[in-house]
Write a structure and sequence with these properties.
The complex is a heterodimer of chains A (about 500) and B (about 500).
Chain A lengths: L2 H7 E12 L38 H13 L3 E2 L6 E4 L9 E4 L6 E10 L2 E14 L3 E5 L11 E5 L6 E7 L9 H19 L11 E11 L9 E6 L2 H20 L8 E5 L4 E4 L12 E2 L10 H9 L5 H12 L3 H9 L3 H9 L4 H19 L10 H12 L5 H12 L5 H8 L7 H14 L1 H8 L6 H11 L6 H12 L4
Parallel strand pairs in A: 11-12
Antiparallel strand pairs in A: 1-9, 1-10, 2-5, 3-4, 3-14, 5-6, 6-9, 7-8, 10-11, 12-13
Helix pairs in contact in A: 1-4, 3-4, 8-9, 8-10, 10-11, 11-12, 13-15, 15-16
Chain B lengths: L7 H9 L5 H19 L2 E4 L1 H16 L11 E5 L26 H8 L3 E6 L33 H8 L5 E6 L5 H7 L2 E4 L19 E6 L2 H11 L17 H7 L6 E5 L9 H16 L3 E5 L7 H16 L20 H12 L2 H14 L5 H24 L2 E5 L15 H5 L6 H6 L2 E9 L6 E8 L4 H19 L11
Parallel strand pairs in B: 2-3, 7-8, 7-9
Antiparallel strand pairs in B: 1-3, 4-6, 5-6, 5-10, 9-11, 10-11
The chains are: A alpha+beta (about 500), B alpha/beta (about 500).
Chain lengths: ~500, ~500
């Protein structure tokens, strides 16, 4: 069902479960390193392979990171809580139980405010808890790369035991037609909070941040929530938005036909932008949670928690408010920069000496256009904030105009060197030689006698065409302002 | 006296003085093992070459002037649940047959460093689940006092090895009585330290919140020396207590009970207890009074609910702890013929690799933890556990130690309770409360039952980290009885 029609008939309720791999040097319950991309099964030991007799010991740095995340998300921090075992058999889980937390999360009852469409939406956080990652299975043979139909599977336990924080929202009603945007804004904001805290590299494409998206629909006017689905395999911020939209459309079509939504796990597909049913669970899994007897309870000292809170860095939203004020931009411009992931770049460009308006203009204009053409994020462009600041300085100093500046940027992006190198190699200096400019103007006046006559006759607006002619004749290198002055002077007209 | 009849303390002193080498001591015990093992079946693994190499290394360290502990050069047998880098570790199960651990348990490592020489790995009930060693996948161990009877369990190989003079010392683990009960029925000393006092790292888990490594020896001082040698905080075990080890050797040396307040647990005795066991126990109570202790009766009403609570908590934890035996990374693998899924191979392996008692407990625990039953079973059992801890706390307000018979009966015949799990479980009636509360408890011999001439054990229970009190009272009883008998109880055992 088309999205607009779906929204006319139904109201969506969202929920997001986000897993963030912490960037600690060692694993959650042993001393193994956590570096990404090592040869398979080289970062393992008796503990993370679950050899008989081995025991876990909790990583204090991971507990500290989790508490800092909880504090940044305005959560209460448990004074006493335990790890719990989540029991289920799977070959990539060495113990056949995952050490997680169940009814005693380390952090609970918080919120995260996000900006959508110029409005603030408060996302309530149910819990933030700490657990361990599983190993990684690769299914060999078969067409789908999934376990069904595969000839055999291989397992890499390097990832087994990497600390994982799970952040669960409360159900989010009332987002209405903005549900996809709210979901994306939440994931974006959460990612920035993690970056500001320095607790994770939050790379969705490498799996260090993973979002599961829950969606249910209820008929307009109803207050009873519908059956939800949980969509996994959502590997980018854009996919978060697309997955919500696709699920709303799919569920609406089923409900409108009088069908029933099955509570299930679904998989998002990047290529089609739609979800398919995951392995059907014939019966609900019973994880037989119980408190982990191998680990002592966590009882964070309240004074220590208070000191962690006091030492939190400036959080992204606060920082954006500050920058918005410093830069003097509108809410919508700020949101646009945020959505384009341009704030860090603009800030660095300003720090390198560019005026905020110019920095924003280049990143959100020319560079955003080029990034979009290339299908890459802004940060992937082969140009630095320092280089943009240099170009801004050349424009401000009169050495370049905007048109030339665009050519300089193009040169830098092509790998032709620094802005100064591109200017000299391409000969992009503005024409400042009055004699040369004067000669060009004389030629243009001669070639455009009609326009010159109109200006002489008092129609000053016609001067634009003459300036344009000068710019064309100089291949853009003339200073348009100076050219205008000289034309008027030569025609004996004053404004 | 031959080397095998000497105490660990004496052997350590002889080696220290250079009067005998560690190699000679090890060889004497290897000879004894070779002679009596066909009758006793205490060991799952003996490897003379490895043992002698270890002994040579100790002699070299001593010759090089290295400062070694009082047990350097003394042989020891390890229950086959402690990992050893140089010997296989099976937990008495087919599912781990032939598994060679790449790492040493903390207990193993510390004792290796202290210069103890490993004779081998001893038999046990599979995954330490049982009270008779009949649940071993490798056949039962026999009681040196009467080869038709059980040596206790689950650490029955360790108790039999020490009682049969195959080893002067051995290690065991006590989850519901698995050190104290075998010690009692084989006439030796067995100690369950305070939970967290000895590291579980490298101990193949049965029930994590209960499992406690501890020593077996033929006398209280030897047990204390071994206790001290492997105890103390271990950063690899989160539940390990970061506190000084109670001064157990000093307490064993002291061995005096004058002025001590001793409580007799009212709930342990009467129906179901063998007359000969009760007779020896009551004599020991009188003995303690004559030694100057003040003995009173103390009621611990919740102790009667300990057994059912234990049989919910221990199976629950084991159902999860044993999930890792899935054929994926180590151990037995059954049915991997290229056509079956991983799940099928897991199921076939577990069906073939686990024995009936292990399966019974896994199923029991899986049920007790399942959604909808958790509160009624596991949750309720944890409440009982709290009540038992409170009973202990209240009791230790009144008295310094509590005492009881270690077991309701002496060693029973092999096969007698094999098909009756409930009768088997009753063997741990008196020992389980200390596991649930985590406090220290020891069993020391207190005589032979009249009706069968088999050993009876006295259990001495002390508060958490009050392990020294167990040794103090145990040593006092041991000395007074030795005076009465003209030697240790084991001197009365028939020759093998």
């Amino acid at each position: 069902m088309p999205y607009d029609e779906a929204l006319e008939r139904f109201e969506p309720v969202l929920g997001l479960e986000t897993h963030v791999e912490l960037g600690t040097a060692s694993k959650m319950f042993c001393g193994c390193p956590t570096a990404f991309g090592a040869a398979p099964n080289t970062q393992v030991c008796p503990v993370c392979l679950a050899l008989p007799g081995s025991l876990p010991t909790a990583n204090a740095a991971a507990i500290e990171s989790t508490i800092r995340i909880g504090l940044a998300l305005n959560c209460s921090i448990a004074e006493w809580c335990r790890f719990a075992r989540k029991n289920y058999f799977y070959p990539d889980m060495p113990k056949n139980y995952q050490i997680s937390q169940y009814d005693e999360p380390l952090c609970f009852d918080g919120y995260l405010d996000v900006e959508v469409d110029g409005k603030t939406v408060r996302i309530e956080i149910e819990r933030v808890h700490l657990e361990e990652d599983t190993g990684k299975s690769t299914h060999m043979g078969g067409a789908t790369g999934r376990i069904h139909g595969a000839d055999y599977s291989i397992v890499d336990y390097n990832r087994a035991g990497i600390p994982l924080v799970e952040i669960v929202t409360k159900p989010i009603p009332g987002t209405d037609r903005l549900a996809p945007e709210v979901a994306r804004a939440y994931a974006t904001e959460l990612r920035e909070v993690m970056r500001a805290l320095g607790v994770s590299d939050v790379r969705m494409e490498e799996g260090s941040m993973r979002c599961d998206v829950n969606v249910s629909l209820m008929p307009r006017g109803s207050s009873e929530w519908g059956t939800r689905t949980e969509t996994k395999n959502v590997n980018s911020l854009r996919s978060v938005e697309r997955a919500v939209r696709s699920e709303i459309e799919r569920q609406a079509a089923i409900l409108a036909d009088g069908g029933r939504i099955i509570q299930e796990t679904r998989h998002f597909h990047e290529d089609t932008g739609s979800t398919t049913s995951g392995r059907s669970k014939e019966e609900a899994q019973d994880y037989r949670y119980f408190p982990e007897p191998d680990l002592v309870p966590i009882a964070p000292d309240p004074a220590w928690v208070a000191s962690l809170k006091a030492a939190l860095p400036e959080l992204p939203r606060v920082r954006r408010k500050r920058l918005q004020q410093e830069w003097g931009v509108s809410d919508l411009d700020m949101e646009a920069m945020h959505n384009a992931d341009a704030i860090d770049l603009v800030e660095a460009t300003v720090a390198a000496g560019a005026p905020p308006a110019d920095a924003r203009k280049w990143w959100m204009g020319e560079l955003a256009r080029r990034a979009n053409e290339a299908g890459v994020p802004l940060s992937a462009l082969q140009i630095t904030p320092d280089q943009i600041a240099r170009v801004c300085a050349m424009v401000a100093g009169g050495a370049l105009n905007d048109k030339l500046a665009r050519q300089v940027l193009e040169g830098v992006l092509n790998g032709e060197g620094s802005p100064d190198e591109v200017v000299s190699a391409r000969g992009l200096q503005i024409v400042n030689d009055e004699g040369e400019l004067s000669a060009i103007i004389d030629q243009v006046l001669a070639d455009n006698a009609d326009a010159a006559e109109k200006v002489r006759g008092g129609k000053i607006a016609a001067v634009g065409a003459l300036v344009g002619g000068v710019m064309k004749a100089s291949r853009g290198k003339a200073d348009a302002g100076r050219a205008r002055e000289l034309i008027l002077q030569k025609l004996g007209v004053s404004e | 006296m031959s080397l095998i009849h000497k105490s660990a303390a004496e052997l350590g002193a002889l080696v220290a003085r250079g009067e005998v080498s560690a190699v000679e001591v090890a060889q004497a015990h290897l000879d004894r093992i070779a002679a009596v093992e066909p009758k006793v079946n205490a060991f799952l693994h003996v490897d003379a070459e490895t043992t002698l190499a270890q002994a040579r290394r100790v002699d070299e360290r001593r010759a090089a002037g290295e400062e070694l502990g009082p047990l350097a050069g003394v042989p020891i047998a390890h229950k086959d649940v402690f990992t050893t880098v140089d010997m296989p570790t099976t937990a008495g199960s087919k599912i781990l047959e032939g598994w060679r651990p790449p790492y040493d348990a903390t207990v193993t490592r510390r004792l290796r460093e202290a210069g103890l020489v490993i004779l081998g790995k001893t038999n046990l009930d599979e995954f330490a689940m049982g009270s008779s060693t009949e649940n071993s996948a490798y056949g039962p161990t026999r009681n040196p006092w009467d080869l038709s009877r059980i040596p206790g369990g689950s650490s029955g190989g360790s108790s039999a090895a020490v009682a049969a003079y195959q080893a002067p010392l051995s290690t065991g683990t006590d989850t519901g009585g698995s050190i104290r009960q075998p010690a009692a029925v084989t006439g030796i000393v067995g100690m369950k330290p305070t939970y967290g006092g000895s590291s579980r790292y490298g101990l193949i888990a049965f029930a994590s919140s209960l499992d406690t490594p501890g020593p077996f020896a033929r006398d209280v001082m030897d047990a204390a020396l071994l206790h001290e040698a492997f105890s103390g905080h271990d950063a690899l075990d989160s539940t390990s207590i970061d506190a000084p080890v109670p001064s157990v050797v000093e307490a064993a040396r002291q061995g005096d009970v004058a002025g001590l307040r001793i409580g007799v647990v009212k709930e342990f005795g009467g129906e179901g207890y063998q007359a000969g066991v009760l007779a020896r126990f009551h004599e020991t109570v009188e003995l303690l009074e004559t030694l100057g202790a003040k003995v009173v009766e103390v009621s611990c009403p919740s102790f009667t609910t300990a057994l059912p609570a234990y049989y919910l908590i221990a199976p629950s934890e084991c159902s999860s702890n044993l999930a890792r035996f899935d054929a994926m990374r180590y151990g037995l693998r059954v049915g991997d013929d290229g056509t079956r899924s991983a799940e099928e191979v897991m199921a076939l392996t577990r069906a073939a690799g686990f024995g009936p008692e292990v399966k019974r407990r896994i199923i029991l625990g899986t049920y007790a933890l399942s959604s909808g039953y958790y509160d009624a079973y596991y949750g309720q059992a944890q409440k009982v556990r709290t009540l038992i801890a409170r009973d202990f706390q209240a009791a230790f307000q009144q008295v310094d130690v509590l005492i009881s018979p270690t077991t309701p009966t002496t060693a029973f015949p092999i096969g007698e309770r094999a098909d009756d799990p409930m009768a088997m479980y009753l063997a741990d009636l008196c020992t389980i409360p200390s596991n649930l509360a985590g406090n220290a408890a020891i069993s020391v011999p207190c005589g032979l039952a009249d009706e069968d001439g088999l050993p009876v054990g006295l259990q001495i229970m002390a508060p958490v980290l009050g392990d020294d009190r167990c040794y103090r009272v145990g040593a006092a009883v041991e000395r007074a009885l030795a005076d009465r008998w003209g030697g240790g109880l084991l001197a009365k055992a028939p020759a093998l």
